[in-house]
Write a sequence for this structure.
């Protein structure tokens, strides 16, 4: 015991630590061979031909799309505001980057955040995924900081090399709190507060929340109310571990950990006691667990997965903005459009352009892709992991000594680490409609991929994947104001019918498609935008410019929602609404101030 304790102290001192910042210039050189083979030649040729053909088709339909876009913009410019945004009351569940970005955008749109917006966070401070309670050991942003930055709030405006690079989980938490401090979000949030229930009053069209202190035992005496709210926005994507339910868990003699709960102490315990580890799952989190142990020089582990995941090469997506990579980025856009027609063709374009990579035998099953990125250093380190530790198979049940696979193979383990994605936690809430228990259909289509049509005072901000990182919460705030202030109040039947016309939106709100391998993530991403375009919330040119910025120009802004009247100053991010005096009950018409007039004329 004394030797083990002494060894543990030495290990703690020498443990590998992810760098705070990895600038783009230090992400490493691609480990893949640059040799030109016939496969590469055919792949590039195929990607090039498909890109040229698709571009020609887009040019051909341009006149029709232009006419439809002009009509759509005229229609929305003539809409009126039915309710003053300064009067609506919003509740936000979750204090991660989505929650505080949503609140910041609501303020830009004229919502009185100090008086009428309340945020609720179960943990001690802001952070979400990056909070110490949820981030796993040695976690690092897997994309560039220009993807993970807040709207109009660059991570490092003085050094582009850092903004194009990656940071550790601890540094990301500091950045999130820096944004929250500058936005003065603390005064609008209640920490250590868990939302227990959402109560919907159909006559008043209001929601009331039942809250509990997350530090105490959940009892009736520990409950209090907050509200009423015109809308409650759920802003949590990955707060709960997702562990497959299997038989035999009680018989397993070892320890079960999900990646969310894998801390430095767990890693130290594994290494100091030479525990046999089995990592289950081939996604980005699985790669992180493997790299964590491998970089410590630890070899007593095995890696179980049904099939290796496909990733994007970091330096190709978050590229250096050279002409070559800019043009290659256009082929990524073409692959995204082809995802609506053929998953295989879409995948072959990305393999051919040199965008895709995997740590196992290459395949074209793009259901095993969730927008994960691997940088050159990560790919190099994964390539150094012995192939013998990889076991292709699906775990079906626990046994006393480990797990048993579908094939009947038994894999021994002292510790099982589940790298199988996360859940939103939305199923942990209780729902009540007019005083009676209500079973919220968590697999029903959400209107505009955002609003529950049968419970129209509750929206899921984490389901609105218009872009990546915290910036997508800008659009959640846009839709919140549109729903409360501009869209006419519709009956639930009408809202349900509108949602049923969508191509997509039937994602499982308990576990987002970003954590599933049942569908093609790229198709889900494009389908979301198609649905928003079909109902006029987004137009074609704004969508195309948005994905061109991300994939071709290697930068990101929020997707533009042209859903506000032309004299609605909030849509330009430069001030508050100045409503004119109106009679009680009359539609609110904002004044056409000089700044808005100049913007419109421009």
């Amino acid at each position: 015991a004394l030797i083990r304790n002494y060894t543990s102290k030495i290990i703690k001192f020498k443990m590998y630590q992810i760098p705070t910042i990895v600038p783009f210039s230090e992400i490493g050189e691609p480990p893949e061979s640059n040799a030109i083979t016939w496969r590469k030649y055919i792949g590039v040729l195929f990607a090039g031909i498909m890109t040229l053909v698709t571009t020609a088709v887009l040019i051909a339909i341009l006149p029709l799309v232009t006419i439809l876009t002009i009509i759509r913009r005229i229609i929305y410019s003539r809409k009126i505001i039915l309710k003053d945004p300064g009067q609506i009351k919003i509740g936000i569940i979750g204090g991660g980057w989505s929650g505080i970005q949503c609140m910041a955008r609501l303020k830009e749109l004229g919502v009185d955040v100090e008086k009428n917006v309340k945020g609720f966070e179960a943990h001690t401070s802001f952070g979400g995924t990056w909070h110490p309670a949820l981030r796993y050991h040695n976690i690092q942003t897997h994309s560039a900081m220009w993807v993970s930055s807040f709207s109009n709030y660059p991570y490092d405006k003085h050094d582009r090399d850092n903004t194009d690079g990656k940071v550790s989980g601890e540094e990301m938490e500091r950045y999130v709190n820096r944004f929250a401090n500058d936005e003065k979000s603390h005064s609008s949030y209640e920490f250590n507060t868990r939302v227990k229930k959402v109560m919907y009053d159909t006559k008043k069209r209001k929601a009331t929340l039942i809250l509990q202190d997350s530090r105490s035992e959940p009892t009736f005496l520990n409950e209090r109310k907050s509200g009423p709210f015109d809308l409650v926005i759920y802003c949590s994507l990955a707060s709960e571990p997702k562990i497959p339910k299997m038989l035999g868990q009680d018989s397993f003699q070892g320890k079960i950990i999900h990646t969310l709960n894998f801390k430095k102490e767990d890693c130290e315990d594994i290494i100091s006691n030479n525990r046999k580890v089995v990592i289950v799952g081939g996604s980005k989190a699985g790669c992180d667990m493997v790299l964590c142990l491998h970089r410590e020089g630890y070899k007593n582990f095995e890696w179980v997965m049904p099939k290796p995941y496909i990733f994007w090469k970091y330096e190709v997506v978050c590229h250096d903005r050279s002409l070559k990579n800019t043009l290659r980025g256009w082929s990524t856009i073409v692959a995204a459009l082809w995802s609506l027609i053929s998953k295989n063709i879409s995948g072959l374009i990305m393999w051919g352009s040199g965008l895709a990579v995997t740590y196992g035998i290459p395949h074209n099953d793009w259901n095993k892709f969730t927008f994960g990125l691997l940088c050159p250093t990560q790919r190099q380190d994964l390539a150094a992991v012995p192939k013998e530790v990889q076991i292709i198979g699906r775990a079906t049940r626990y046994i006393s000594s480990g797990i048993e696979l579908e094939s009947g193979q038994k894999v021994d383990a002292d510790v099982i680490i589940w790298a199988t994605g996360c859940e939103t936690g939305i199923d942990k809430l209780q729902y009540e409609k007019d005083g009676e228990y209500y079973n919220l259909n968590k697999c029903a289509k959400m209107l505009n991929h955002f609003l529950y049509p049968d419970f129209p005072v509750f929206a899921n901000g984490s389901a609105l994947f218009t872009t990546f990182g915290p910036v997508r919460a800008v659009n959640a705030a846009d839709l919140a104001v549109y729903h409360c202030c501009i869209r006419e109040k519709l009956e639930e039947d009408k809202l349900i019918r509108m949602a049923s016309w969508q191509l997509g939106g039937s994602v499982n709100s308990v576990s987002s498609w970003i954590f599933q391998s049942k569908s093609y993530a790229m198709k889900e991403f494009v389908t979301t935008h198609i649905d928003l375009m079909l109902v006029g919330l987004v137009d074609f040119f704004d969508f195309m410019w948005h994905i061109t910025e991300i994939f071709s120009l290697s930068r990101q802004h929020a997707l533009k929602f042209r859903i506000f009247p032309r004299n609605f100053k909030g849509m330009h991010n430069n001030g508050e609404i100045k409503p004119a005096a109106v009679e009680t009950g009359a539609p609110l018409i904002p004044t056409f101030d000089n700044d808005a007039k100049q913007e419109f004329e421009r």
